[in-house]
UniProtKB/TrEMBL annotation:
Signal peptide: none annotated. PANTHER family: UROPORPHYRINOGEN-III SYNTHASE, CHLOROPLASTIC (PTHR38042). The lineage of its organism: Eukaryota, Viridiplantae, Streptophyta, Embryophyta, Tracheophyta. This is Uroporphyrinogen-III synthase. The keyword Lyase applies. Keywords: Lyase, Porphyrin biosynthesis.
Length: 302
């Protein structure tokens, strides 16, 4: 198992034949590669000159920033959304809980949790909210809103972007038992609230959304995806979704993860090579992708 933490990587030219393919595979390209009756092997053979280097897997509509960065560095990419977000069982409770109760902290652990919380906060008529976010990337969701509304402030980010450090480092604001609101994915582990409870915090968890695996994938797109040497993964759910559709015993590519949480999930799932940045975020993620590509290219040349 090779797990590499990326601190800083020179954005060098990869010099791979795979990089000659530019941009996402559009509908017109797919129509040339795929038609009813073709086998996946025939699609692979026909697409050999158009292999993507990286598969991007976030929910549909949330891959564009990474795609633009990859395009700007000449890295060919294929968009294959593997997950989708749906309403959680506690979503309707969120506005009233925000409005009626006072919390020392509202803890946010992902960009999607941030977006869902903001909608509830607006419906609750913008009450004061002191936020603790798991990392810089999640905090950026609040930046524009924070500049416009003094009632919303990001006041804490842990030293490492994971639930363990957040639970261990969240400040207590008084000697009394602090109250924490934790709007989360229904699929999120209980590590955070258990860690906070062990320190004496009273934690209210609301499962405001759920991360689900996409049920149907176009076989032509999947055929191209398995030709890529690197898959970009932004959550444990995406890791699980990739493993559900790709046999890791025959696909020998690398996982480039957005942060440590996803990387640990990839390692447990059986990926042989896992790369992730020390600090989660889009720029570090790009560096991890480049490092993974360089390693894969060197491996193929050996």
């Amino acid at each position: 198992m090779e797990v590499r933490i990326i601190n800083a990587t020179t954005l060098s030219s990869l010099g791979s034949a795979r990089v000659a393919w530019s941009g996402r595979l559009g509908t017109s390209s797919l129509s040339r590669l795929y038609s009813p009756g073709k086998t996946l092997q025939e699609i692979r053979i026909q697409a050999v000159s158009s292999f993507p280097s990286v598969v991007v897997t976030r929910e549909k509509g949330k891959n564009q920033k990474l795609i633009d960065l990859l395009d700007s560095h000449g890295i060919s990419n294929l968009e294959l959304p593997l997950i989708e977000h749906k309403e959680g069982p506690d979503l309707d409770m969120l506005p009233s809980v925000i409005q009626e109760k006072t919390f020392d902290w509202i803890v946010i652990t992902s960009p999607e949790a941030a977006s869902v919380f903001l909608e509830g906060w607006k419906l609750a008529d913008f009450p004061k909210a002191r936020l603790a976010v798991v990392g810089v990337g999640t905090g950026q969701i609040f930046e524009k809103v924070g500049f416009k509304n003094a009632n919303l402030s990001v006041d804490f980010v842990p030293s490492k972007a994971n639930a363990k450090n957040l639970a261990e480092e969240l400040p207590k604001l008084s000697s009394e038992r602090g109250k924490v609101l934790y709007p989360a994915s229904a699929k999120a582990s209980h590590e955070l609230e258990m860690g906070l409870s062990a320190r004496g915090f009273e934690v209210v968890r609301l499962n405001t959304y759920s991360t689900e695996t996409v049920k149907s994938i176009d076989p032509s797109i999947l055929a191209l995806a398995v030709s890529a040497p690197v898959v970009a993964l932004a959550s444990p759910s995406a890791v699980r979704a990739w493993v559900d559709v790709v046999d890791l015993s025959t696909w020998l590519g690398a996982a480039a993860c957005i942060g440590q949480t996803s990387a640990l999930a990839a390692e447990k799932a059986g990926f042989k090579r896992v790369f992730y940045p020390q600090s989660p975020g889009i720029d570090g993620w790009l560096q991890s992708i480049i490092e993974a590509l360089e390693t894969q290219t060197a491996k193929e040349a050996a």
